[in-house]
Amino acid sequence: MEILLFILPVFFALSVLIVPKSGVRAYGIIGSLAVLGVVIACMMQYNNDGTVHLFANKPWIAGITLSFGYDGISLLMLLLTAVLVPLVLVSNLKNELAENRLFTSMVFFMQLGLIGVFISMDGLWFYVFWEITLIPIFLISWWFGAPERKAALMKFFIYTFVGSIAMLAALIGIKMGARSFYIEDLKAVTLTAKTACWLALGFFLAFAIKIPIFPFHTWQPDTYTKSPMAGTMLLSGIMLKMALYGMIRWMLPLFPEALHCLQYPIIILATIGVVYAAIIAIKQKDIKRVFAFASMSHVGLIAAAIMTWNIDALSGSMVQILNHGLVAVGLFLAVEIIERRTGTRNLGDLGGFAKQAPKFAFWFAALAFASVSVPLTSGFIGEFLMLKGLVNFDIIIGIIAGTTLILGAVYTFRAYQLSMYGPVTRSQFADLHWSELAVLAVIIIAVVVFGVYPAAITDFVNPSLKIVLETVSTPSGL
């Protein structure tokens, strides 16, 4: 059954190219739901003991193995991917992209790359699928983005490509002491602290660019802004999660000797990014750029928490990865709704929409509360566990990172207030279409369910996290 995780995205990516234009919308949604069904089936049959379930593991060629499998961590990432793809497609039903065959095909090819990243247990296949994801998102943004998109996208491509080359060099470096690229063979390699630090930096560069972590972030705001909204949703909701997953699955387990030299520098850089991006978000006039910098601030906190390498922070990181993926898609959908109806994203030109579109005002407000992690949302327990881990690691860093709670509320509610209230700037602002309402409702319901019952996530991923933690000993003795 697991082989369908590869077959279905490829099948729908190719077959949608010959589907009549009028049927592309429905065909894309059906295909994405089929993939979701396979992921749910894999979760139901998984024995949640924390071990990796390998459904393929045999030598292939030149030290490369056909090793694919999943554990609780991988399955949560697969679930996030499989849920967000249909949400992105449904959210674009009123957009002309919904009936574009190339766009839908690229979405499925991107889903293929993401699935490959999350289930690859061979380092080279992880790298291959990592690279595959770059192609469709670049083409989606290039073909369907803003007219002035080219410079931003070339910067995005160059940054990502340089990071990928660094990761490949590090993979080859550690493979020189291993029998194969199979993850367990790579983990078995013993390195000096100095060598491990240099090789780990190759992985870190790739991940820091993708997340992004300060100061490797300069590609992000322009790329998010110039990409079509569906492309921004895919970038923020799913693609950057590959790097956070990579830190947990690959970087630290492969190079445990590097933890002592990289832990503080990475946590400090990530924490700087949390505060820096939040302050920049407060000053933005373009509502899409507000949420672009907000995304950087939120994921910077996740990256910092991961580097503390303790179970509470890692559990909170997994909860927040899921929460951020859902909320980011919802916020960028809200921006798309505003821009589609008004033709502008400038906060100075917006206002008064709450009176004309009360349903939209309600669900946008719910997203805003979810974004700032109020109690009974999944973001609350995620940020609580992450900040708890950071405070235990270093109280000063924890306090500085905790300013995200205040700064996040400032830029989020500023964007909401300026767009929803004040003088009415448009004579008409249509309320939510059923497809937009459905996407926002699914997101908010999921955020509240996991906020009330976060154990559904933590109990599922903790057995796998504990096994991963055992591969790396930390200074705190965890």
Comma- or semicolon-separated keywords:
disordered C terminus; 478 residues; two-stranded antiparallel ribbon; globular; mainly alpha
Give a description of the structure.
The protein is mainly α and 478 residues long. 73% of the residues lie in helices and 3% in strands. It is built from 21 helices and two strands. The chain has helices spanning 4-15, 24-45, 72-91, 101-119, 123-144, 150-175, 183-187, 193-210, 220-226, 229-239, 241-254, 259-283, 287-308, 311-342, 353-356, 358-371, 378-393, 395-402, 404-420, 434-452, 455-470; strands at residues 53-61, 64-70. Strands 1-2 form a two-stranded antiparallel ribbon. The protein starts with a helix and ends in an 8-residue tail after the last helix. Mean pLDDT is 89; it is low at 474-478.
Widest β-sheet, arrangement of strands: 1-2
Question: Spans of 5+ residues with little confidence (pLDDT < 50)?
Answer: 474-478
Strand-pairing-aware structural class: mainly alpha
Question: How many E strands?
Answer: 2
Radius of gyration from the alpha-carbon trace, in angstroms: 21 Å
Strand content: under 5%
The end-to-end distance, rounded to whole angstroms, is 37 Å
What share of the residues lie within helices? over 70%
Mean pLDDT: 89
What's the helix-strand series?
A: HHEEHHHHHHHHHHHHHHHHHHH
Biggest sheet descriptor: 2 strands, antiparallel
Instruction: Based on Cα principal axes, name the global outline.
Output: globular
Question: Given the structure, what is the number of helices?
Answer: 21
